[in-house]
Amino acid sequence: MDRLGSRDIYSIILLAKRYIAENREELSRLDSVIGDGDFGININRGFELAIERLSTIDPDKTDIGTILMTVANALLESVGGASGPLFGGLFMNMAMTSLGKYEVDLATIANMFNDGLKGVREIGGGTMPGDKTLIDSLYPAVEALQQAVRENRDIVAAFKDALIAAERGAKATANMVAKRGRASYLGVRSIGHQDPGATAIYLIIKAFHDYTSGKR
């Protein structure tokens, strides 16, 4: 596989929504320790609205940027707290890189994710890896995609590496002290608990991986 089309991206979003829904209780459990305890409910609500809106469009006649913009706006409108702007910003920046495109190769996909990462960091006020946020799984996943481009690998191999990197990054947040958001008030007491945002990013990357590798 060397390209993803509009219908592929559409299907990946459907799969991501399924994974978020299946894990919403766990995401809220993780959030209950270091946040408000409603992250799973909120992010699932956002993806439900995204899928509702996507159901009204024909993916074969819609460019990738418009599909991702639809997701972004749904998340921005329906996910409360800081998560809405962060996850909405991720998809918004990915959308801006793919507006008007009906197919994207790996280099463009890597650019989409990198632009999404930049957007999240800007919204988060310069959030860095190690701050115990969604960046801790997103950043290494983007690095893996960029490395795959440099090595001229295909999309399947690229997302295999990105998934490994995202999972490793998400799990690593359990050993970090939170430096952003409400969780930062806990200081060292935030150690021992995996970040829910980083976990959600892992699930989104998993959707890309499972779709491209046929595990869906």
UniProtKB/TrEMBL annotation:
InterPro entries, per the entry: DhaK_L_YcgS, DhaL_dom, DhaL_dom_sf, Dihydroxyacetone_Kinase
Pfam family, any one: Dak2
Keyword annotations from UniProtKB, A to Z: Kinase, Transferase
Residue span, DhaL domain: 7-210
Coiled-coil features, chain-numbered ranges: none
Any GO BP annotation: glycerol catabolic process
PROSITE patterns: DHAL
Kinase keyword on record: yes
GO molecular function: glycerone kinase activity
Tagged with keyword Kinase: yes
Protein name stated in the entry: Dihydroxyacetone kinase subunit L
Organism, as annotated: Ignisphaera aggregans
Gene name, Swiss-Prot/TrEMBL: dhaL
